[in-house]
Structure formats: structure tokens, C-alpha cells
Design goal:
The complex is a heterodimer of chains A (204) and B (250).
Chain A lengths: L3 E5 L3 E7 L2 E3 L2 E4 L5 E5 L2 E7 L1 H22 L5 H16 L6 E9 L3 E7 L5 E4 L1 E4 L3 H11 L6 H18 L6 E8 L2 E9 L10
Antiparallel strand pairs in A: 1-2, 1-10, 2-11, 3-4, 5-6, 6-7, 7-8, 8-9, 11-12
Chain B lengths: L17 H11 L4 E5 L3 E7 L15 E5 L2 E7 L1 H22 L5 H14 L11 E8 L6 E6 L5 E3 L2 E4 L3 H11 L5 H13 L9 E7 L6 E2 L2 H23 L6
Antiparallel strand pairs in B: 1-2, 1-8, 2-9, 3-4, 4-5, 5-6, 6-7, 9-10
Helix pairs in contact in B: 2-3
Classes of the chains: A alpha+beta (204), B alpha+beta (250).
Protein name (chain A): Proteasome subunit beta
Keywords (chain A): Cytoplasm, Nucleus, Proteasome
Family (chain A): Belongs to the peptidase T1B family.
């Protein structure tokens, strides 16, 4: 039931992910941040097995850092995406990671980009992408309303339309979402969309 | 296939490890390197022997970052340095991955020193021919540190130190002139110490600074270094003049 989706706009890329941590019928927490800041200008929105998700994305993050210290310059988004795919591919026929990833980044030379990387090491450079049951709704909504070179406001409107669609049509829809943006000024939190805040029981 | 794993570094009858001492000789021939620890600033300065005109100086950086909060400069065999620095950088990221925390300066120093020691007690290898000066700020506490390692694998913390060419005279200067300082004063002390043995001028010195507040290592531009050198020369001249001044009064 995890929902992750994203799109590329005019000089920026936006990714949104649900924030529920689920184990069978139990909701552990509803403010789990699944979008990792890979480096100053890259975001990785991941969904899948929670252990694998954290393990794999942190592994990629540390290797991206190591490259920066060894070579004095950071990896491009394309290079990081290809590295990530390569790691998934190598592990695939031995000990696969069950993680789906949308990697968004901004490079000075090539602008904003979004990469779709699924758990069996498919890699596609895309303008919009989504994972999970929510993708049936968000992809269709984005297909209907997406235009290239949208402004941040227009893109957020579209993201909110997708969240609304997921909330109203997905049977066990996640209540809360986090939205992050990456542009020339870096990768950062944009907003949270919460329909359920943490409930504290009254003191007895 | 001949065996390449016999011990190379072995004791002499009077208890010396000559390979390690020869490695220290290699260090003594290396570039003069100075490190100073201030209250909120740490500085590394290295002598730059005349850069060939055709060489791209950016590719021959002598002061390197190991992580956002740790920097290293060394004297000795630069090729050996590359190997140690690479292993240290991997360890910095590995520590972050497994312990969810950046390394402390002492940890990474202990790691590098441990590597240097291993190569004095392993078959088929020779010791690394370099001494390192490691500076940085510990995560959370943000306390500044300066450490030195050498080919034997020993390490210790310092307020200020020098290694490489003429390190003894630089250390003497530092012992005479060190006092707790911060910011620009720390940088000036490091450069003054290095100028004791290096020809004056921005193009003969490489200086890098790390402060408690900013992340990352800042390499000083040649113009900046020239400006500080000019300040130091002016201060020296004023001190000379002051010495000669008073006796004129009768």
C-alpha cells in the first residue's frame, strides 16, 4: 500500500511519498520519512521492504559521499542512478533487495531529472513516475494533467490532485504524505500533507 | 612461484626497526607541513616546492578532506599517501553507515595509525613512508583536534605540530610562539611557522582551514595567502623597528 510518485518541472523535480510504516495489520507510525536526501542535490524516494529500503538507500548514500571525497566533485544524477541500478542488478540473482526507487536530482549541466528504478533493476529516465498501488491513480492523474515545464505551484497542484485521488480511491489509503523538491538551490523538504496527526490518548 | 611473504621489518640486535627508521628518513625529506589547533579553527599549511609551469596545480593538492569534518596533510611518499587516504575515506563512510555517526578525529587517527603499524608487522610489505597531520572537529561536541601519526604507527594529539623538512626548527618556533588563538590568529600562526623554513609568498604555500561553524575544508586562495604573508612581514618589520627605536632616546 506504499505510494511513491514524482515528476519533473521547469528546473526542478518533485517527489512525494506516503509516510506510513506498516507491519501486517499494525501501523507502527504515520510519520516515517521515506525520501532520503542522497546529497546536496539528489533525492531518493524509496518503497518496499522496510529493512531493505533503509539498508540499501543508506548504502547508496555512503557510496555517493565516498565518490565525492575521492574525486573532489559529486556524482551526476544519471551516474548515481546507474550505480544504484548496478547494485540492484548484482544482488538480484543472489540476494535481491526488495526496494523500488524514484531518484530525483538537479545537475548544473543537464537540469532536473527523474529516474525510475524498480526492484528488479529496471532503470528508466522519466518525466513522471510512480510505484505501488497508488501508482494506478497517480500515474493516470499525472498523465491527464502533466505538461512539460510546469512551475512549482502547478506541479504542487498536480501532486495534491494525485494525493486526493489516492485518498479517495485506494481502499487502505495512507493518511499522510511528505513532499520534497530538488532544484538548483538543492534538495529539501517542501511540505507534509497530513490528514491524521499523531493521536495522544488523554492522561488517566 | 617464489614466496613474497617473508618478514621485511625485523628487529636489529639493539632493538631498532631499521625499516621504520628509514621510513622516518623519507618523511624528513618530504615537504614541510604545519598544523595548528585553535579554539574554533584548525589550520593545515604545507610548503609547495616550485610548481612546474605546465602542471595543473589543482590536481596536486597536498591537503585533502577525509570527510566533511576531517582533513589531512602529510609529508613523505605521496603515492603511499594516496593508498592511506583512500582507505581512510572508505572507513569514514563505513563508520557512518554502520554506526549512524560520523567518525571522531581520534577514531580515524587511530585507524590510520593502526594501518601504518600493520605494515610494520606483516610479511612481504614495507612501512608507509609518510607522517600525517590530521585535523578536524568531533561531531556533536565540536571540539577541535590535531593529531599526528608516523610510519611506526604511533599517534598523539597536539596543540600545534610540524612534520617533514625542517620540522624541528618549525616545532621550536611553535613552542616559543604558541598561544590559544581563534580564527585569523590561528591561520597567521600556522603561516608564520611555515615561513620560518619556506620562501615567502602565496605561491609557495598551500593553506587550508576548517572552522567549527562551517562544514567542509576551505582552501585559501593564493591572493588571500599573499595578503596574510604581507601582514606578517609588516608585523615583523614593525617589531624590528621597535627594537631599534628606544635606544635612540637619550
Amino acid at each position: 500500500m506504499e505510494c511513491v510518485f514524482g515528476l519533473v518541472g521547469n528546473g526542478f523535480a518533485i517527489v512525494a511519498a506516503d509516510t506510513s510504516a506498516v507491519h501486517s495489520i499494525l501501523l507502527h507510525k504515520n510519520n516515517e520519512d521515506k525520501i532520503m536526501v542522497l546529497d546536496s542535490h539528489k533525492l531518493v524516494a524509496a518503497s518496499g521492504e522496510p529493512g531493505d529500503r533503509v539498508q540499501f538507500t543508506e548504502y547508496v548514500q555512503k557510496n555517493v559521499s565516498l565518490y565525492k571525497f575521492r574525486n573532489g566533485i559529486p556524482l551526476t544524477t544519471a551516474a548515481a542512478a546507474n550505480f544504484t541500478r548496478g547494485e540492484l542488478a548484482t544482488a538480484l540473482r543472489k540476494n535481491p533487495y526488495s526496494v523500488n526507487i524514484l531518484m530525483a536530482g538537479y545537475d548544473n549541466e543537464s537540469g532536473a531529472s527523474l529516474y525510475y528504478i524498480d526492484y528488479i533493476a529496471t532503470l528508466h529516465k522519466v518525466d513522471k513516475g510512480a510505484f505501488g498501488y497508488g501508482s494506478y491513480f497517480s500515474l493516470s492523474t499525472m498523465d491527464r494533467h502533466y505538461r512539460s515545464d510546469m512551475s512549482v505551484e502547478e506541479a504542487i497542484e498536480l501532486v495534491d490532485k494525485c494525493i486526493l485521488e489516492i485518498r479517495s480511491r485506494l481502499v487502505v489509503a495512507p493518511p499522510n504524505f511528505v513532499i520534497k523538491i530538488v532544484d538548483k538551490d538543492g534538495a529539501r523538504d517542501y511540505a507534509w500533507r497530513q490528514s491524521v496527526k499523531d493521536v495522544t490518548t488523554a492522561a488517566v | 612461484m617464489a614466496r613474497y611473504d617473508r618478514a621485511i621489518t625485523v628487529f636489529s640486535p639493539d632493538g631498532h626497526l631499521f625499516q621504520v627508521e628509514y621510513a622516518l628518513e623519507a618523511v624528513r625529506k618530504g615537504n614541510a607541513t604545519v598544523g595548528v589547533r585553535g579554539t574554533d579553527t584548525v589550520v593545515l599549511a604545507v610548503e609547495k616546492k616550485s610548481t612546474p609551469k605546465l602542471q595543473d596545480s589543482r590536481s596536486a593538492r597536498k591537503i585533502v578532506s577525509l570527510d566533511n569534518h576531517i582533513a589531512l596533510a602529510c609529508a613523505g611518499l605521496k603515492a603511499d599517501a594516496r593508498v592511506l587516504i583512500n582507505k581512510a575515506r572508505i572507513e569514514c563512510q563505513s563508520h557512518r553507515l554502520t554506526l549512524e555517526d560520523p567518525v571522531t578525529v581520534e577514531y580515524i587517527t587511530r585507524y590510520i595509525a593502526g594501518l601504518q603499524q600493520k605494515y610494520t608487522q606483516s610479511g612481504g610489505v614495507r612501512p608507509f613512508g609518510l607522517s600525517t597531520l590530521i585535523v578536524g572537529f568531533d561531531p556533536y561536541s565540536r571540539l577541535p583536534s590535531l593529531y599526528q601519526t608516523d610510519p611506526s604507527g604511533t599517534f598523539s594529539a597536539w596543540k600545534a605540530n610540524a612534520t617533514g623538512r625542517n620540522s624541528n626548527s618549525i616545532r621550536e618556533f611553535l613552542e616559543k610562539n604558541y598561544k590559544e588563538s581563534s580564527g585569523q590568529e590561528t591561520i597567521k600562526l600556522a603561516i608564520r611557522a611555515l615561513l620560518e623554513v619556506v620562501e615567502s609568498g602565496g605561491k609557495n604555500i598551500e593553506v587550508a582551514v576548517m572552522t567549527r561553524e562551517e562544514t567542509g575544508l576551505r582552501q585559501l586562495e593564493e591572493a588571500e595567502i599573499d595578503a596574510i604573508v604581507a601582514e606578517i612581514e609588516a608585523e615583523k618589520a614593525a617589531a624590528e623597528a621597535a627594537k631599534k627605536g628606544p635606544p635612540k632616546e637619550t
